[in-house]
Protein backbone atom coordinates (compact mmCIF):
# COMPACT_ATOMS: atom_id res chain seq x y z
CA UNK A 1 0.00 0.00 0.00
CA UNK A 2 1.56 3.37 -0.96
CA UNK A 3 2.21 5.63 2.06
CA UNK A 4 -0.17 8.21 0.56
CA UNK A 5 -3.11 5.77 0.75
CA UNK A 6 -5.93 7.27 2.77
CA UNK A 7 -6.14 4.08 4.82
CA UNK A 8 -2.39 3.70 5.45
CA UNK A 9 -1.72 2.40 8.95
CA UNK A 10 -5.40 2.13 9.92
CA UNK A 11 -6.15 -0.79 12.26
CA UNK A 12 -9.69 -1.74 11.27
CA UNK A 13 -10.11 -3.98 14.30
CA UNK A 14 -10.16 -0.78 16.37
CA UNK A 15 -12.76 1.09 14.30
CA UNK A 16 -16.46 0.97 15.19
CA UNK A 17 -18.88 -0.67 12.77
CA UNK A 18 -21.67 1.89 12.40
CA UNK A 19 -25.31 1.35 11.52
CA UNK A 20 -25.99 3.23 8.28
CA UNK A 21 -28.96 5.38 9.34
CA UNK A 22 -30.34 8.64 7.84
CA UNK A 23 -28.38 10.81 10.29
CA UNK A 24 -25.11 9.29 9.13
CA UNK A 25 -23.99 11.09 5.99
CA UNK A 26 -21.20 9.59 3.97
CA UNK A 27 -20.96 10.05 0.22
CA UNK A 28 -18.74 7.12 -0.68
CA UNK A 29 -16.88 9.51 -2.99
CA UNK A 30 -13.49 7.95 -3.73
CA UNK A 31 -14.59 4.45 -2.69
CA UNK A 32 -12.60 1.98 -4.77
CA UNK A 33 -13.41 -1.70 -4.84
CA UNK A 34 -11.79 -4.45 -6.84
CA UNK A 35 -15.27 -5.32 -8.12
CA UNK A 36 -16.62 -2.10 -9.63
CA UNK A 37 -20.28 -3.16 -9.38
CA UNK A 38 -20.06 -2.79 -5.59
CA UNK A 39 -19.10 0.88 -6.05
CA UNK A 40 -22.14 1.28 -8.27
CA UNK A 41 -24.42 -0.39 -5.70
CA UNK A 42 -23.41 2.30 -3.24
CA UNK A 43 -23.29 5.32 -5.54
CA UNK A 44 -26.43 4.60 -7.52
CA UNK A 45 -28.54 4.03 -4.46
CA UNK A 46 -29.24 0.28 -4.51
CA UNK A 47 -28.32 -0.02 -0.86
CA UNK A 48 -30.37 3.03 0.16
CA UNK A 49 -33.35 1.67 -1.79
CA UNK A 50 -33.10 -1.70 -0.02
CA UNK A 51 -32.92 0.05 3.35
CA UNK A 52 -35.90 2.28 2.52
CA UNK A 53 -37.87 -0.80 1.46
CA UNK A 54 -36.92 -2.47 4.76
CA UNK A 55 -35.46 -5.48 2.97
CA UNK A 56 -31.97 -5.00 4.35
CA UNK A 57 -29.98 -3.08 6.92
CA UNK A 58 -26.50 -1.75 6.26
CA UNK A 59 -23.47 -1.18 8.46
CA UNK A 60 -20.33 0.67 7.47
CA UNK A 61 -16.72 1.14 8.39
CA UNK A 62 -15.29 4.60 7.79
CA UNK A 63 -12.07 6.37 8.49
CA UNK A 64 -12.48 10.14 8.77
CA UNK A 65 -14.88 10.92 5.89
CA UNK A 66 -13.83 7.96 3.79
CA UNK A 67 -15.98 4.89 3.32
CA UNK A 68 -13.79 1.84 3.99
CA UNK A 69 -16.47 -0.82 3.56
CA UNK A 70 -20.08 -1.80 3.95
CA UNK A 71 -22.09 -4.90 4.76
CA UNK A 72 -25.83 -5.54 4.51
CA UNK A 73 -27.81 -8.08 6.53
CA UNK A 74 -31.26 -9.51 5.85
CA UNK A 75 -33.47 -12.41 6.86
CA UNK A 76 -32.98 -15.67 4.96
CA UNK A 77 -33.77 -19.37 4.96
CA UNK A 78 -30.91 -21.86 4.80
CA UNK A 79 -31.90 -24.87 2.69
CA UNK A 80 -29.76 -28.01 2.70
CA UNK A 81 -30.28 -31.41 1.12
CA UNK A 82 -29.69 -33.30 4.38
CA UNK A 83 -30.96 -32.90 7.94
CA UNK A 84 -27.81 -31.35 9.43
CA UNK A 85 -29.20 -31.13 13.00
CA UNK A 86 -30.29 -34.78 13.31
CA UNK A 87 -27.98 -35.33 16.28
CA UNK A 88 -29.96 -32.63 18.09
CA UNK A 89 -33.23 -34.39 17.26
CA UNK A 90 -34.16 -31.82 14.59
CA UNK A 91 -35.16 -33.35 11.27
CA UNK A 92 -35.65 -30.18 9.21
CA UNK A 93 -33.76 -29.38 6.05
CA UNK A 94 -34.45 -25.66 6.17
CA UNK A 95 -33.52 -23.31 8.96
CA UNK A 96 -33.83 -19.66 9.95
CA UNK A 97 -30.78 -17.63 9.01
CA UNK A 98 -29.44 -14.13 8.60
CA UNK A 99 -27.82 -13.47 5.26
CA UNK A 100 -24.85 -11.33 4.38
CA UNK A 101 -26.34 -9.58 1.36
CA UNK A 102 -23.72 -7.17 0.00
CA UNK A 103 -20.22 -6.85 1.37
CA UNK A 104 -17.50 -4.71 -0.13
CA UNK A 105 -14.41 -2.92 1.05
CA UNK A 106 -12.10 -0.34 -0.44
CA UNK A 107 -9.20 -2.22 -2.00
CA UNK A 108 -6.76 -0.06 0.00
CA UNK A 109 -8.48 -0.94 3.30
CA UNK A 110 -6.86 -4.28 4.06
CA UNK A 111 -8.44 -6.05 6.98
CA UNK A 112 -11.73 -4.18 6.64
CA UNK A 113 -13.45 -7.26 5.19
CA UNK A 114 -12.44 -9.39 8.15
CA UNK A 115 -13.58 -6.70 10.58
CA UNK A 116 -17.04 -6.47 8.97
CA UNK A 117 -17.63 -10.24 8.83
CA UNK A 118 -16.37 -10.88 12.36
CA UNK A 119 -18.53 -8.02 13.61
CA UNK A 120 -21.61 -9.35 11.76
CA UNK A 121 -21.19 -12.90 13.08
CA UNK A 122 -20.85 -11.66 16.64
CA UNK A 123 -23.71 -9.17 16.25
CA UNK A 124 -26.14 -11.84 15.04
CA UNK A 125 -25.06 -14.35 17.71
CA UNK A 126 -25.13 -11.80 20.55
CA UNK A 127 -27.94 -9.41 19.60
CA UNK A 128 -30.32 -11.17 17.22
CA UNK A 129 -30.35 -14.81 18.28
CA UNK A 130 -31.53 -14.12 21.88
CA UNK A 131 -34.77 -12.61 20.56
CA UNK A 132 -35.39 -14.34 17.20
CA UNK A 133 -34.65 -17.97 16.41
CA UNK A 134 -31.65 -17.79 14.12
CA UNK A 135 -29.10 -20.56 14.04
CA UNK A 136 -27.17 -19.86 10.84
CA UNK A 137 -25.64 -17.16 8.72
CA UNK A 138 -25.68 -17.49 4.95
CA UNK A 139 -23.97 -15.82 2.03
CA UNK A 140 -24.08 -16.16 -1.74
CA UNK A 141 -20.33 -15.91 -2.33
CA UNK A 142 -19.72 -14.16 -5.65
CA UNK A 143 -18.26 -16.38 -8.38
CA UNK A 144 -17.41 -14.81 -11.74
CA UNK A 145 -16.15 -17.30 -14.33
CA UNK A 146 -15.45 -14.53 -16.85
CA UNK A 147 -12.27 -13.26 -15.22
CA UNK A 148 -8.89 -14.99 -15.42
CA UNK A 149 -8.59 -16.65 -12.98
CA UNK A 150 -12.29 -16.82 -12.05
CA UNK A 151 -13.22 -14.44 -9.24
CA UNK A 152 -14.28 -16.54 -6.26
CA UNK A 153 -15.18 -14.89 -2.94
CA UNK A 154 -15.83 -18.24 -1.22
CA UNK A 155 -12.19 -18.56 -0.06
CA UNK A 156 -12.66 -15.40 1.96
CA UNK A 157 -15.72 -16.78 3.76
CA UNK A 158 -14.02 -20.13 4.39
CA UNK A 159 -11.56 -18.23 6.60
CA UNK A 160 -14.44 -17.66 9.03
CA UNK A 161 -15.75 -21.24 8.98
CA UNK A 162 -18.45 -20.87 6.32
CA UNK A 163 -19.20 -24.15 4.52
CA UNK A 164 -20.77 -24.81 1.13
CA UNK A 165 -24.44 -25.80 1.14
CA UNK A 166 -23.55 -28.04 -1.79
CA UNK A 167 -19.93 -29.17 -1.36
CA UNK A 168 -20.15 -31.21 -4.58
CA UNK A 169 -21.32 -28.34 -6.78
CA UNK A 170 -19.45 -28.39 -10.08
CA UNK A 171 -17.61 -25.28 -11.23
CA UNK A 172 -18.46 -22.90 -12.67
CA UNK A 173 -21.74 -22.90 -10.77
CA UNK A 174 -24.99 -22.47 -12.72
CA UNK A 175 -25.53 -19.14 -10.93
CA UNK A 176 -22.87 -16.43 -10.36
CA UNK A 177 -22.36 -17.43 -6.73
CA UNK A 178 -21.84 -20.34 -4.33
CA UNK A 179 -24.15 -20.48 -1.34
CA UNK A 180 -22.42 -20.96 2.00
CA UNK A 181 -23.48 -21.13 5.64
CA UNK A 182 -22.01 -20.75 9.09
CA UNK A 183 -23.36 -22.49 12.21
CA UNK A 184 -23.62 -19.87 14.95
CA UNK A 185 -24.43 -22.33 17.77
CA UNK A 186 -20.88 -22.66 19.17
CA UNK A 187 -20.59 -18.87 19.45
CA UNK A 188 -24.14 -18.48 20.79
CA UNK A 189 -23.35 -21.07 23.49
CA UNK A 190 -20.11 -19.34 24.36
CA UNK A 191 -21.80 -15.94 24.64
CA UNK A 192 -24.58 -17.30 26.84
CA UNK A 193 -22.29 -18.69 29.54
CA UNK A 194 -23.00 -16.40 32.52
CA UNK A 195 -20.03 -14.50 33.94
CA UNK A 196 -18.68 -16.31 36.98
CA UNK A 197 -19.30 -14.20 40.11
CA UNK A 198 -16.12 -13.63 42.14
CA UNK A 199 -16.11 -15.86 45.24
CA UNK A 200 -16.81 -14.12 48.60
CA UNK A 201 -14.06 -15.94 50.48
C1 LIG B 1 -14.16 -10.07 -0.38
C2 LIG B 1 -13.66 -8.82 0.33
C3 LIG B 1 -14.80 -8.16 1.11
C4 LIG B 1 -12.55 -9.21 1.31
O1 LIG B 1 -12.16 -8.07 2.03
P1 LIG B 1 -10.61 -7.78 2.41
O2 LIG B 1 -10.57 -6.56 3.26
O3 LIG B 1 -9.83 -7.83 1.17
O4 LIG B 1 -10.29 -9.00 3.27
P2 LIG B 1 -9.23 -9.03 4.46
O5 LIG B 1 -8.03 -8.19 4.09
O6 LIG B 1 -9.90 -8.71 5.75
O7 LIG B 1 -8.81 -10.57 4.39
C5 LIG B 1 -9.12 -11.54 5.33
C6 LIG B 1 -8.48 -12.81 4.84
O8 LIG B 1 -9.21 -13.30 3.68
C7 LIG B 1 -8.31 -13.52 2.60
N1 LIG B 1 -9.06 -13.28 1.36
C8 LIG B 1 -9.59 -12.13 0.92
N2 LIG B 1 -10.26 -12.34 -0.24
C9 LIG B 1 -10.10 -13.67 -0.52
C10 LIG B 1 -10.55 -14.51 -1.58
N3 LIG B 1 -11.31 -14.04 -2.61
N4 LIG B 1 -10.23 -15.84 -1.55
C11 LIG B 1 -9.48 -16.33 -0.52
N5 LIG B 1 -9.04 -15.58 0.52
C12 LIG B 1 -9.35 -14.26 0.50
C13 LIG B 1 -7.17 -12.54 2.85
O9 LIG B 1 -6.02 -12.93 2.18
C14 LIG B 1 -7.04 -12.63 4.36
O10 LIG B 1 -6.36 -13.82 4.68
P3 LIG B 1 -5.40 -13.90 6.00
O11 LIG B 1 -6.26 -13.51 7.17
O12 LIG B 1 -4.98 -15.34 6.03
O13 LIG B 1 -4.31 -12.94 5.75
C15 LIG B 1 -13.05 -7.78 -0.67
O14 LIG B 1 -12.03 -8.39 -1.41
C16 LIG B 1 -14.06 -7.18 -1.63
O15 LIG B 1 -14.65 -6.13 -1.34
N6 LIG B 1 -14.25 -7.84 -2.79
C17 LIG B 1 -15.17 -7.35 -3.82
C18 LIG B 1 -16.61 -7.54 -3.45
C19 LIG B 1 -16.91 -8.97 -3.05
O16 LIG B 1 -16.46 -9.94 -3.65
N7 LIG B 1 -17.74 -9.09 -2.02
C20 LIG B 1 -18.19 -10.38 -1.53
C21 LIG B 1 -19.40 -10.74 -2.31
S1 LIG B 1 -20.21 -12.16 -1.64
UniProtKB/TrEMBL annotation:
Q: Where is the N-acetyltransferase domain?
A: 10-194
Entry EC number(s): 2.3.1.-
Top-level EC class as recorded in UniProt? transferase
InterPro entries from the xrefs?
Acyl_CoA_acyltransferase, GNAT_dom
The entry lists its GO molecular-function terms as: acyltransferase activity
SUPFAM superfamilies under this entry?
A: Acyl-CoA N-acyltransferases (Nat)
Instruction: State whether keyword Oxidoreductase applies.
Output: no
Q: Does the keyword Acyltransferase apply?
A: yes
Keywords per UniProt: Acyltransferase, Transferase
Name of the protein: GNAT family N-acetyltransferase
Q: Which organism is it from?
A: Floridaenema evergladense BLCC-F167
Amino acid sequence: MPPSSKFAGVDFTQLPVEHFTPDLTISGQGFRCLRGEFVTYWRQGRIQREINARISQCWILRYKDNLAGYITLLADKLEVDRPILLDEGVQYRSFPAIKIGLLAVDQRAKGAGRRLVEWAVEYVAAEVSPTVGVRFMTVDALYDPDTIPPYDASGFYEKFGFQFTDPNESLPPSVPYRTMYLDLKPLIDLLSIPDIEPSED
